[in-house]
Amino acid sequence: MQATAPASLLYAALLLPAVLYLAVNRRRSRYLPPGPTGLPLVGSLPFIDRNLHTYFAGLAEKYGPVLSIRLGSKVEVVVSSPELAREVLRDKDPVFANRVMPEAGRAVCFDGEDNMSGSPVGPKWRLLRRVVVHEMMSPAGLDSVHDLRKREFGSTLRYLHSKSGEPVDVGRQMFLNDTMNVLTSTMWGSTIGSENERAAVGREFRLLVGEITGLLG
């Protein structure tokens, strides 16, 4: 009996967190849409498929057009029907527009509240949105870079024509010409040096964007 007492205490210590987790999770789940239970601490993270669209489509078939899923310490609500997505993203956009900014996002975006994607809905967010809509995405704003976009699009076509019969990484070329060159020309008035220099900067920039995207989750 004395030998089994420590083992019993160990089993109880291991089971207690799981029991508490299930009790708390069941209580919280009463206010959430249905969804997979997941595991303690990590939730459904170990089970997520790399093809997210097929994974969420499978969950929608099982749990319905509105479901909840726990990813680590965060609970996400997934809306999969066009009608509900329209209601969330268009009709009730101010209600759902606020986003939780992860710590990586705060580090990358200087606390995250000085850009439209991380700023909570309020006067600053409305000002940033107004600037984007009226200055950057307005017909006048798009027309102001029309010549730049036309020039870089023509450069891409000439490059593809020169590589006829050869394998070409179209995504890389579009990124270098149609994205990098337009951005640098808009900000600095000129493109980045030679094609080799652009390729080097483009590779570094793509790696940086990929790393930031990974950190942001």
Automatic annotation (TrEMBL):
InterPro entries: Cyt_P450 (IPR001128), Cyt_P450_E_grp-I (IPR002401), Cyt_P450_sf (IPR036396)
PANTHER family referenced in this protein's UniProt entry, alphabetically: OS01G0700500 PROTEIN, OS08G0547900 PROTEIN
Pfam families given in the database record: p450
GO molecular function, one term: oxidoreductase activity, acting on paired donors, with incorporation or reduction of molecular oxygen
Transmembrane segments annotated in the record for this chain: 6-24
Protein name as it appears in the record: Cytochrome P450
Organism of provenance: Eragrostis curvula (weeping love grass)
UniProt KW keywords: Membrane, Transmembrane, Transmembrane helix
